[in-house]
Amino acid sequence: MSVRSYLVTLKKQLETNSIKSPLRFVTGNQSADLDSVISAISFAYFNYKKDESLLIPLINISRTDFKLRRDIVTLLDSYSITEDSLYFIEDFKRITASDVPIELTLVDHCNIQGDVFTDYLSKGKLDIVGIIDHHQDESVFLNANPRIIHSNGSCSALVFNYWYDQFSNKDIFYEKDNEIVPLLLGSLLIDTSNMSQKVEEGDVIAFKEYQNILQKNEILLKGLGNYACQSTDNIEKLLKGYYKQIKVAKKDMKGFKFYDILKKDYKQFKFTSRCNVSTVVGFSSIGKSFYWLLSNYSMQEISETFNEIMKDFNLDLLIMTTSYTRQENDQYTREFSYAFNSSNPRKDILLQLANLANDELKLDSDIYKLENLNSYLADLGKGQTFKIYNQNNTAASRKQIVPVIKDILENN
């Protein structure tokens, strides 16, 4: 059975109200990046292959925001998995409108993310029954089963490894129409930069199995070659081409407003200090330099967008991190920035944020191609504070930055 066939079966069962109680979902995190989406879809798919029970894979964003994930849209579409066969936050609310028990498995995060799930959990309307994640363990939902939380480059690799161990007969992984493996491979390659960065044991184990499966499946290998525009004769070149095609789609921001860029890879958290003061923080990960952003968007649009997103998401603080490779010398670079309204009651702490995070992030003012930064910021709206830094600790992605900011805001 293909992934598409599973989703078609699921849709028919939902339309006829044929799914038995409890309603069971699996969801990735709020960023809804490739790793989260493939982790959720693959978990639901393998679960069905195991015992034919239906699990609804949920993408933790609104349907309208899915178009911003061009890498996911194009990759899924290449296997005839279209948006109308997928499920989003508004679908969760619609499907769970009746008063039935709800079970939720978390992948690519280990604590509830988003107002909808938070509300359902606080009202006792859902139970967290499983977790597979590669972020910092937040020590919640300790009775979840499975509860697999440890460092790894790709969460989807942990999902695959878990399910691979559940089957004594491995034949299901070698079925001709089993396109879940190329999807899992794409997620792994993107999260590890084609197995060159942040590669850990779980990634290596999964990657070995993906290669074994693909090399014994001419149909999947040919499909991979068509997507990658590469011959299947050389597996190394094939995988490199596959990775590059997905990355090109991920980096494609043509036609995006600045607001779209901030929402493309976004997570939100609430941190509460020892004095019971809460700070709502949005984290946007961006695959372009601030030089590119400030060259393509006016400070007026940037300023207006800050106000808009702060209002739309009730934010106290917006943190933006960029990561990219400089074309002229292939130097991998990260930048760290943040914005807040100057009237914020925690202004004193927020102004010190860079200093307080400096030991971990190694920040300085040597920002790529932005020697005259103040001239760019001169048109920033009154009442806003916007800070940009070069981040010398390039190993620290959002996964590492969130705990740093959490510690600062909860302990100061």
Automatic annotation (TrEMBL):
Keywords: Hydrolase, Manganese, Metal-binding
Molecular function GO terms recorded: exopolyphosphatase activity; metal ion binding
Gene Ontology cellular-component terms listed: mitochondrial matrix
Domain of life (superkingdom): Eukaryota
SMART domains: DHHA2 (SM01131)
Domain DHHA2 residues, every copy: 243-409
SUPFAM superfamilies per UniProt: DHH phosphoesterases
Cofactor: Mn(2+)
PANTHER family, per the entry: BNIP - RELATED, EG:152A3.5 PROTEIN (FBGN0003116_PN PROTEIN)
Name of protein: DEHA2F05104p
Species the sequence originates in: Debaryomyces hansenii (strain ATCC 36239 / CBS 767 / BCRC 21394 / JCM 1990 / NBRC 0083 / IGC 2968)
